[in-house]
From TrEMBL, chain A:
<keyword id="KW-0812">Transmembrane</keyword>
<keyword id="KW-0472">Membrane</keyword>
<protein>
    <submittedName>
        <fullName>Uncharacterized protein</fullName>
    </submittedName>
</protein>
<feature type="transmembrane region" description="Helical">
    <location>
        <begin position="5"/>
        <end position="26"/>
    </location>
</feature>
<feature type="transmembrane region" description="Helical">
    <location>
        <begin position="46"/>
        <end position="67"/>
    </location>
</feature>
<keyword id="KW-1133">Transmembrane helix</keyword>
TrEMBL record, chain B:
<dbReference type="InterPro" id="IPR036188">
    <property type="entry name" value="FAD/NAD-bd_sf"/>
</dbReference>
<keyword id="KW-0560">Oxidoreductase</keyword>
<keyword id="KW-0503">Monooxygenase</keyword>
<comment type="similarity">
    <text>Belongs to the FMO family.</text>
</comment>
<dbReference type="InterPro" id="IPR000960">
    <property type="entry name" value="Flavin_mOase"/>
</dbReference>
<dbReference type="Pfam" id="PF00743">
    <property type="entry name" value="FMO-like"/>
</dbReference>
<dbReference type="GO" id="GO:0034899">
    <property type="term" value="F:trimethylamine monooxygenase activity"/>
</dbReference>
<keyword id="KW-0274">FAD</keyword>
<dbReference type="InterPro" id="IPR020946">
    <property type="entry name" value="Flavin_mOase-like"/>
</dbReference>
C-alpha cells in the first residue's frame, strides 16, 4: 500500500511539475498577467498533483479497466 | 474587421446582447441606435410563455457590472428579468439609444459602412451607419413548428409554446406537449391539474441537469468549474495539458462522465418506465449530449410527475393527425384537443443580402465567426450573442466589451489570413464532433470558460479571475459567476 502511495505521489509530482512548467510557458511575459499570480498558480498546481497523485492514479486505473470492459462489451453487442 | 474611424453604430436587437453592446460602445464615445421590432425591450425576456424564467441561479445570470437586486428570487422569473433590463438601461443611460417597434428589413454595404432599411409604424426609412452589430439572438426569429401529415383536418388547436401566455388556455383540455427541452417541460408541468390530460411526446431524451446535484450541491459546483472544463472534449485551441488528459489520460474523463451519468440516472430517476416500457435514459453519452441544442434544468418535480403518471410520457415521433387524435410513430393514438409544440425557434437573418451571407460562409449549422463576433470578409459588421453558454449574460457582456475595445483599437486583430484560418479550424473542430443542429456554429456551453479566457487575454486581462491566497484552489474547484468579471466588463 505504501509503495503504491509512493508511486502515485511520484507520478503526481512529475505530472504536476510538467503542468507547472506549461502554466509558466503560457503566462509568463504576457502583458496583463501578473507574474506573482502565475508563479503562485504554478506552485499550487504542482502541490495538488503531488498531493492527489495516488488518487488520480487509482481513478486512471479504474477508468482504464471499465473503459476496456465497456469497449469489449460494445464490440460484442455490435457483432452479428 | 473594422475599417476607418467608427463614429456611430446601429445595434439590431434590444435583448441582453444589444443592450450590453450599446452600453460598451457609448462608453467609447460612439453614438448608438438600438432597433428592436418589439415594442418592449428585453428580447426573449420581453414576453414569454406561462411561467417562463431563467433556468440557472441568479448569480450566474446577471450583468456582471449590475447585480440583480437581493429581493429577486434565486431563479429569476422572466418578467422580473425584463424589469431588471429596464433598470440596466436607465443605470447606464442608454435608453435614449432605443428605437423600439422598429424592424430592420434590409442591410447593404455602402463605402466602409452600411445602409439599413428600417420599418416602424410610420413607414420605411433609410439609415446610414459606420458599424452594424447584429444582436438578434438565437431564439427569437420564428417558432420552429414541424409540418405533420393531417394537421389541416385536426379540429383542436395547434400552438407553439410561446403562444401559451396563460395556462388557463389549457383548462379542461386534453393536451399533448411535443418536445423535451425546458419550454416543453415547463408547459407540461404547469398544465398538470389544469388540463384534463397531459401527454408529453418526444423523440429523444437528454441528460437533465438537476438544480442541485444529489439534492445537495448546486449544479454549478459540479458542472461549471475549471476542473470540469478540463474533462469535456478539448477546446479548439486546447492546452498541452488538456490534450494529454484526453489522450493518455482519457480513462480519467471517461470515468468522470460515467459516474456523473450514474448519479443523474439515480437522482433523476431516469429508469422510470413510461409508455410502451420505454425509459427516460438518453441514448448519447452526457459529454456529447451536453452540446445538443436542448439543455434542461428541469423544474423540481418534473420527473416525479412523469413517474406518478400526471404526465403521460411517450418516447416517439409524430406520424399524423386525425380530426381529434395524434397518432405516434410507435402506433399509439392520443386523443387530444390541443397540441403544444415546445420545439424551439428558428434562427435566421432575413435582412442579410445573399451576397453577404455567401461572404460570411453561412452553412446549415450557422455562421462561423472569428471569436464568434467578426468575419474578415464583412468589415464593420459584428455579431454579439452568437455564442450559447450557461452564463449568457456574462458571455455577451464580454463579447460587447471585446468588440468595443476592437473598435477603439485597444485590441489588435490578427491578419485577415489568420482570422480566416481561425474560423476554418473552429468550423472543423465543431463539425468533427458536436451534435449537428441549426445553431452549432454558436454552441459553446461548457466550453464557455475557454472562450471567456480567450476574450480576456485579447483584452489584456487575466483569465484567472479568482482572488485571494487560495485563488489557485478556487480556480480549480469553485465555479465562476458573473461577479468574477465585474472589473473587466
Ligand atoms: C425561457 C428561456 C430560458 C432561458 N434560460 C437561460 C438560462 O438560464 N441561461 C442562459 O444562459 N440562457 C438562457 N436562455 C437563452 C436566452 O435566449 C439568452 O440568455 C439571452 O436572453 C439572449 O439574448 P439576446 O439579446 O442575444 O437575444 P434575444 O433576447 O433573442 O433578443 C434579440 C432581439 O432582437 C430582435 N430582433 C430580431 N430581428 C430583428 C430585426 N430584424 N429588427 C429589429 N429587431 C430584431 C428581437 O425582437 C429580440 O428582441 C433562455 C431562453 C429562454 C427563451
Amino acid at each position: 500500500m505504501s509503495t503504491y502511495l509512493l508511486i502515485g505521489t511520484a507520478i503526481g509530482a512529475v505530472l504536476g511539475f510538467l503542468h507547472m512548467l506549461s502554466i509558466f510557458r503560457a503566462r509568463l511575459g504576457r502583458p496583463g498577467l501578473a507574474p506573482i499570480k502565475t508563479v503562485w498558480q504554478g506552485i499550487w498546481t504542482w502541490f495538488l498533483w503531488t498531493l492527489f497523485g495516488a488518487y488520480v492514479l487509482t481513478f486512471w486505473i479504474l477508468g482504464a479497466v471499465f473503459l476496456g470492459a465497456s469497449k469489449l462489451l460494445n464490440r460484442r453487442q455490435a457483432a452479428p | 474587421m473594422i475599417h476607418g474611424k467608427i463614429k456611430n453604430a446601429v445595434v439590431i436587437g434590444a435583448g441582453i446582447s444589444g443592450l450590453a453592446t450599446a452600453k460598451n460602445l457609448t462608453r467609447k464615445g460612439i453614438s448608438c441606435r438600438v432597433y428592436d421590432r418589439n415594442s418592449k425591450l428585453g428580447g426573449v425576456w420581453a414576453d414569454g410563455y406561462h411561467g417562463f424564467g431563467v433556468q440557472i441561479p441568479k448569480d450566474l445570470y446577471e450583468f456582471p457590472d449590475f447585480p440583480l437586486p437581493d429581493e429577486v428570487p434565486h431563479y429569476t422569473p422572466g418578467p422580473e428579468f425584463q424589469k431588471y433590463m429596464e433598470e440596466y438601461c436607465d443605470h447606464f443611460g442608454i435608453r435614449d439609444c432605443l428605437q423600439l417597434g422598429t424592424r430592420v428589413t434590409a442591410l447593404r454595404r455602402s463605402g466602409d459602412g452600411w445602409t439599413l432599411e428600417v420599418e416602424d409604424e410610420s413607414g420605411s426609412n433609410i439609415v446610414q451607419t459606420d458599424l452594424v452589430v447584429i444582436a438578434t439572438g438565437l431564439y427569437s426569429e420564428t417558432p420552429q413548428m414541424p409540418e405533420i401529415e393531417g394537421q389541416d383536418q385536426f379540429q383542436g388547436d395547434i400552438l407553439h409554446n410561446s403562444q401559451v401566455k396563460d395556462i388557463e388556455m389549457l383548462r379542461g383540455r386534453r393536451v399533448a406537449v411535443v418536445g423535451y427541452g425546458k419550454s416543453a417541460g415547463d408547459i407540461a408541468g404547469a398544465a398538470i391539474g389544469v388540463a384534463d390530460k397531459v401527454y408529453l411526446v418526444f423523440r429523444s431524451t437528454h441528460w437533465p441537469v438537476p438544480r442541485k446535484l444529489l439534492g445537495l450541491l448546486p449544479f454549478k459546483w459540479g458542472m461549471l468549474t475549471r476542473l470540469v472544463a478540463a474533462m469535456i472534449p478539448p477546446y479548439v485551441r486546447s492546452t498541452p495539458v488538456t490534450r494529454a488528459l484526453h489522450t493518455v489520460g482519457y480513462p480519467l474523463p471517461w470515468l468522470f462522465w460515467r459516474v456523473v451519468e450514474m448519479l443523474l440516472r439515480i437522482q433523476q430517476k431516469l429508469g422510470t418506465r413510461i409508455a410502451n416500457g420505454d425509459t427516460l435514459i438518453p441514448v448519447h453519452p452526457i459529454d456529447y449530449d451536453a452540446y445538443s441544442e436542448v439543455t434542461m434544468v428541469p423544474r423540481p418535480g418534473f420527473i416525479e410527475s412523469i413517474s406518478a403518471g400526471e404526465i403521460s410520457a411517450h418516447r416517439s415521433g409524430l406520424r399524423r393527425f386525425t380530426e381529434n387524435e395524434l397518432i405516434l410513430e410507435d402506433g399509439d393514438t392520443l386523443s387530444v384537443d390541443c397540441v403544444v409544440f415546445g420545439t424551439g425557434w428558428k434562427t435566421g437573418f432575413g435582412f442579410l443580402p445573399k451576397d453577404l451571407r455567401i461572404a460570411l460562409g453561412e452553412e446549415p449549422d450557422g455562421i462561423y465567426l472569428y471569436r464568434h463576433i467578426l468575419h474578415p470578409d464583412a468589415p464593420n459588421l459584428a455579431f454579439v450573442g452568437r455564442a450559447s453558454s450557461f452564463m449568457s449574460v456574462t458571455t455577451f457582456s464580454l463579447q460587447a466589451r471585446w468588440l468595443s475595445e476592437v473598435v477603439a483599437r485597444n485590441v489588435t486583430l490578427p491578419s485577415k489570413g489568420d482570422m480566416l484560418a481561425a474560423i476554418a479550424s473552429l468550423r472543423h473542430w465543431k463539425q468533427s464532433w458536436m451534435p449537428d443542429g441549426a445553431a452549432r456554429s454558436a454552441t459553446l456551453l461548457l466550453h464557455m470558460t475557454h472562450y471567456h479566457d480567450e476574450l480576456l487575454l485579447d483584452m489584456g486581462a487575466d483569465p484567472l479571475r479568482k482572488t485571494g491566497i487560495l485563488a489557485p484552489l478556487k480556480e480549480l474547484f469553485v465555479p465562476y459567476q458573473a461577479s468574477d468579471f465585474r472589473d473587466v466588463i
